[in-house]
Write the structure tokens for this entry.
Amino acid sequence: MGKARKIVLVLTVLMLLAGMVRLSGHSMAAEDKFKVGFIYIGPVGDAGWTLAHDEGRRFMEKQLPWAEGTFIESVAETAEAERMMTQLARQGCKIIFATSFGYMDYVQNVAKNFPNVKFEHCSGFKRAANVSTYFGRMYEPRFLSGMVAGMMTKSNILGYVAAFPIPEVVRGINAFARGVRFVNPSAKVQVVWTNTWYDPATEKEAAKAALDAGADVIAQHQDTPAPMQAAEERGRYGVSYNSPMSHFAPNAVLTGPVWNWGPYYVNRVKAAREGTWKSEDYWGGIVDGVVGLAPYGSMVSDKIKKAVADKQAEIVAAKFHPFAGPIKDNFGKVRVPAGKTMTDAEMLSFDWFVEGVVGTLPK
Amino acid sequence: MNALKLVFEKREAVSPAYKFISPLLAIVMSLVLGAIFLLASGFSPLKVYYYMWWGAFSDWYGISETLVTSIPIMLCALGVALAAKMLLWNVGAEGQFHMGACAAAWVALSMPGAPAWQVLPLMVLAGMAAGALWALLPAVPRAYLGVNEIITTLLLNYVAIYWVEYLVHGPWRDPVSLNFPLSAPFSDAARLPFLFGTRIHWGLVFALAAAALIWFVLGRTKWGYEVTVIGENPRAARYAGMNIERNIVLSMCIAGALAGLGGMAEISAIAGRMTRQLSPGYGYSAIIVAWLGKLNPWAVALVSVLFGGLLVGGYSAQVIGVTAASVNMLQGLMLFCVLATEALGRYRVRIVREVARAGKEVGVDG
């Protein structure tokens, strides 16, 4: 007993000494680099939303060797967000990306205190002289993924595991449903809410509920691949989101809308350094490369791929819009007359479902 | 059959020296264990600890943010501690916090043009009343029917959080905010003022006043004496003619009012509007804080500040690349060590070799 204790003690002391050596050996070479801050809502290992942003950060660092990114993950949308952005600014970050909607008011507060730091808020709508907002027209690839799902379904019931009843998610469901019904007018999209962004267990259960209701393709909006894994276990198909998720469910994932933030981050960091940065409202589409489709699974036929590629070309050429009228809501009322297309403001405040969606929204 | 068995024997008295050393021992223990883990995951422990300390306590900004974080924890923990004095487990501070915030928000949203001297006192009253009512719900069945308050207070947390979800997704949703789940922002008059040019707000004054009041009431008044006696020996209290039921209801309501005040202060000073994510679990941290502070109001206040520092410092460690999960692990390790040294102070642990007594103890497994 005494001997063992001594050994443990000696080992511990040695480890601590080793730690000190590492500390003193750590160089501060990063000091001169152009500092870029990121705050993330989830862990970088979420395989979804946060991972996509972090891949954007890494892409930016690779493209711009003079820039150095610092990120803080799992930052709650509370007083903590304001503190973390303040700390990043105090540590010399020249531009800070806040990558969740709920950071909005806190971005404004910090931006007031640091007028020389540029802020970029993802998915929000409040801007200032040093605050930009940025997001992507995810409804475009959502529509395309809906086409794939609509052509693959046998039961004509598609499950949609939805996060929160906010405009962004509703827009995604509607775009998906428009894509599905474009190729398969008799199919229905069954919505299951989870009220989570990152809760694998809940999201898997929600997907199972949709599968039990007869769905044979599962689409999702959360940041984890759990709904895809549920589809895989039941031998059904899935349409993933955020990042390519096929390695989590290789037999299930048909494709999925994905984010590609890298080029945008490169542009904005470059502009901040060169002094050409201006406050703006960026909403990029497939044409800008900020959104797109993940690689197809092997079960998707060339015929389907061709149909989707043709439609994508029309979207890129601005010849087709997923929310061009006539559009009825799911009670049969005409919301967008023929010949009209929804405006950005209308799409950004979606609070109704299009025809073919089975589900309810809080009023 | 021989078997090794751990036996916990209660010590007759906790030695005074140990009482003093145990928190230090706990900190050293957790730092050493944490260092091993950090080294294994490729970080320099000294650097990580330095950053944690740097973020929470090294300068005025860090200290002010540590205090900001400690305010909701302190108010909730004081309530939890007061109830715990009567051996009541108020696990519901989180829900009481949310209901307090809700009621305060309701006042703020319904009086958009009112001056601060009208709206702020009403928000305080509404917040405390809502918290107290939310605690009254489990308190009455506990007092008169003996319904276990651990379960009822815990479950009511979910009800409160879903109530907030309902409000921000439904009737309180601000149409100007593009249908996002947010209420309209409060008027400036409904914002609790900040102090010293930091984010420290009047909530700190409320919390310290509450600590002083509880300290005074527990130590200097007849009611405080009753609470202590009921907690230590309910039978004796009953025999002495004390009204236990009434005191259960009363102390739970005060606990709820304090948590509700915490919710009011947080939403009024920090958030400025009703949102989905008001608390990262302040009401649950409060339970740990109350017990680490040994239910003494001043100690609870102090531990709240240290806990706030742990939360603030944890985020700072991420700046050098430590993952959020590792930081959570370090925070958990520190709490675990504190509780372990506490247990070791109260109990003596012995390893006993059980020798072939199995013949008599048929059916005992092992």
Notes: The two ends of chain A are 67 Å apart (CA to CA).
